[in-house]
Amino acid sequence: MKKLLYIGILFLIVLTYTQAKTTTTQSNSIEEIVVVFQSGSSKDLAKFFAQGIDININGNQGDYSKNQAEVVMRDFFKKFPPIDFQLLHKGNNSEQIIYYIGSYKSEETAFRVFIRGRKEQNEIKVYSLDIVKN
Q: What is the chain's Cα-based Rg?
């Protein structure tokens, strides 16, 4: 009987740890995106992109593959190196669809950033990125 009790307690501990790890992974994804925007790394940002992504930078809009989107963002970060990025709002339309609004500042210009994504296997996959000059 004691063996069964110990196995039950061990199972609950493992289950609790797994749930906590999943929650931490989910909440860290947006924090990682914030850090990436602050550093201006297109390569790290591309890790969050879905296979196809819609990017709109001040009216220049296009549908890109993950690799093409990385090049577009590399050009953006090169032209407007980051000074600061702050997350202003986060929300979700459903269990799977999420969106974020941020403020991106470069030396010359400030931008509003709209990020839309899906939750897939405890990761955020960004499928739309709008960057609009303030």
A: 19
**In percent, how much of the chain has pLDDT > 90?**
66
Confidence of residue 29 (pLDDT cuts 50, 70, 90): confident
Confidence tier at 83 by pLDDT (50, 70, 90): very high
Report domain extents, the chain.
2-133
CATH code, 2-133: 3.10.450.50
Q: b/e per residue, 13-48, with b = 16+ CB within 10 A?
A: eeeeeeeeeeeeeeeebbeebeebbeebbbeebbeb
| Residue corresponding to tokens 């980051």 | 82
Structure tokens at 88: 């202003």
